[in-house]
Amino acid sequence: MARIKRLIDLPKVQLDRSDATPLNRQIERQLRELILSGDLRPQMRLPSTRQLADGLGCSRGTVVGAIEQLIAEGFLNSSSRSGTFVVGPLLRDAADRRGDKHAARPVKPARLSLLGEFLADAQRPTYRPGTAFSTGTPDVRDFPFAIWSRLCRSVWRQPPRDVVYNQDPAGYLPLRKAIAAYLHDTRGMRFEPSNVFITSGSQQGLDLVARLLLNEGDRVWMEEPGFIEARYALRSVGAGAVAVPVDSEGLSVADGRRRAPDARLAIVTPSHQYPMGMIMSYARRIELLDWARQADAWILEDDYDSESRHSGAPLPALQALDADETVIYMGTFSKALFSALRIGYLVLPPRLMERFCRARYNLDPFTSLMAQPVLTRFIEDGHFASYIQKTRRKLAARRESVVSAARDYFGDAFAFQGDKAGLYVTAVFSGPLRGRSDDEAARKALAAGVVVAPLSSYYQGPATAQGLILGFGSVDEKTIRAGMATLSSVIDR
Ligand SMILES: Cc1ncc(COP(=O)(O)O)c(C=O)c1O
């Protein structure tokens, strides 16, 4: 006992039997503190576990548990011949780092890679679901969550083996089959279900396409104005975006050929150009496919919101015209259902499929299987189709509300462009909006709680048009009217 007292000031290790913390945890925590504070010095030998147990009045097993934990954490080491010792001298430094000194020490700003700095500095879009005229988010108020949760329970009560043991980088095969059937029926596309490749949203699809198909210095056609966020994926691999103007027929292939005939990839939104809203004409589609074949380039067809065409039949996809395996079709459930699902997909040309699977497995093996089987049932049981049908009607009415409210408050200051589809409409200025630029109008609106995206911010180069992107996906008609009234009054101020 005397020896123990000499080695460890036993009163410092005290067991509190009224505390719910198990005794071994109490011993462990207090010994750790004694080591870190320097009360137990490096190289000091601990009494035997039997002596410690006697001194503390607990079982030897309890002490052994605590000591083994501290050995595993690297605070103690032991040898069968000479006993258990405090590790040192490194721990002195660890002890110095603790306590008040730690809090007082100024922490250096984090130094990121050049790419990291670029990505971290990028401005995030303002998403305010429900607020006029926030873009990018659909309405979930009518989403059949009761059905969704029933499907969740039914799938996960006894999950199929191919769900829990999935190792396929392309994702859950039944979901890929359901997506293929849907695209065959609605978009005139023909491909094997095995060529559907599930991603965590289409943003990841874009990132994979950039990483696996582009080299540093490669050039990529991007629509101008366009989905400016695609630049992040390109920049990540050192590829350069070439702005190719769009006109009423979509991307100008002739301009693309002039600016970068040898580009490796073209990123296009043929079904509903983002953000101008027009449909790429048949002639342009053929021109684009011809260029890709001649230049041995790829086309990424970003079909981000085509499910929500407000009326008429869904449009055939560009992919349906591709005879040369140049088109990669990219879809997402972010706009049709909700973006928190983080489920998107690529339809890959057969010549890319196996390579993408292998490469992806080494980066991020596959998208979580939590929601994939549930979504499969949601599609197979017909809920997806009926939900889309209902949403389309609602979106059509909301678009009408935006256009008529804008006419009431702004007269003919705007021209409304594009096909009646999706979750937003672009209001192009006929001239400066009561003397203001779109950027200025957007800033003033935001200060008054109205979110509008300035069209000029979708250009890489100087904007050739000014306007406002007005989202209505998550905005009800009353809020649309009120939002337009606010917009009109703040722009005058
Ligand atoms: C044109 C376009 N492409 C792709 C995306 C990315 O969608 P996801 O949520 O599937 O990554 C968006 C999202 O706003 C978009 O507007």
Structure, described:
This is GntR family transcriptional regulator/MocR family aminotransferase. GO terms for molecular function: DNA binding; DNA-binding transcription factor activity; pyridoxal phosphate binding; transaminase activity. Keywords: Aminotransferase, DNA-binding, Pyridoxal phosphate, Transcription, Transcription regulation, Transferase. In the C-terminal section; belongs to the class-I pyridoxal-phosphate-dependent aminotransferase family. The structure is a single chain. This protein is α/β, with parallel strands linked by helices. It folds into three domains: 2-101, Winged helix-like DNA-binding domain superfamily/Winged helix DNA-binding domain (Arc Repressor Mutant, subunit A, Orthogonal Bundle), CATH 1.10.10.10; 142-381, Type I PLP-dependent aspartate aminotransferase-like (Major domain) (Aspartate Aminotransferase, domain 2, 3-Layer(aba) Sandwich); 388-492, Aspartate Aminotransferase, domain 1, CATH 3.90.1150. It has helices at 2-7, 23-37, 49-56, 60-73, 90-97, 100-104, 114-121, 145-157, 161-164, 173-187, 201-213, 230-236, 253-259, 282-295, 350-363, 372-380, 383-410, 438-447, 477-492; strands spanning 76-79, 83-86, 196-199, 219-224, 240-247, 250-251, 265-268, 298-302, 327-332, 344-347, 414-417, 424-429, 453-454, 467-471. The strands form three sheets. The protein has an eight-stranded mixed sheet with strand order 3-10-9-8-7-4-5-6, with helices on both faces. The chain is elongated and about 90 Å long. Mean pLDDT is 93; it is low at 1-7. Bound molecules: pyridoxal-5'-phosphate. The site of pyridoxal-5'-phosphate has 13 residues, from helix 11.
